[in-house]
Amino acid sequence: MKNVMLSPWPRWYSTGCCLGCHVRTGTIILGVWYMLINAVVLLILLTALSDPEQYQLANDLDVMDDANMCIASVISLLMILICGMATYGAYKLRGTWIIPFFCYQIFDLALNTLVAVSIVVYPNTVQDYLQQLVRSSKCFTMKSEVSGI
Questions:
Q1: Using CA atoms, how far apart are residues 42 and 127, in angstroms rounded to an integer?
Q2: What domain range includes position 99?
Q3: How many domains in the chain?
Q4: Does residue 1 belong to any structural domain of this protein?
Q5: What is the enclosing helix (H) or strand (E) of 14?
Q6: Using N-to-C axis directions, what is the helix angle for 23-50 and 66-91, rounded to 10°?
Q7: Would you state the pLDDT for residue 131?
Q8: What does residue 58 show for φ and ψ, rounded to 5 degrees?
Q9: pLDDT tens for residues 87-112?
């Protein structure tokens, strides 16, 4: 019988993530998923930008004007590019192509953590903002549900 060297710590070494898939496969799936979502967002933004009267995105607040929609479209295009780079890097085994996607994920985690902490620390401010938004909006359909919060 041949002596086979086994790793003394086999449980410390894992190549699986993303529901049991390999790391490379999970990165490709995640990159394609993000590209699809951003393509749908870009399609909605471009459709609303081409015919703003049909899509009443802005009411009294005028938050989504043409300049903001153009900026959102450029961000969506950049996200498609970054996700494409991550997918290509995982497919061709080039790790440096995945770095922009990783940086985006870190930025997204930091931003979401900041929002969550601010909601926990300042809940009255968030409730006041929601009530002000409900009062100022004429075409807000769920006024009674939000005002009950």
A1: 31
A2: 16-147
A3: 1
A4: no
A5: none
A6: 160
A7: 77
A8: -110, 130
A9: 999 999 999 999 999 999 999 999 99
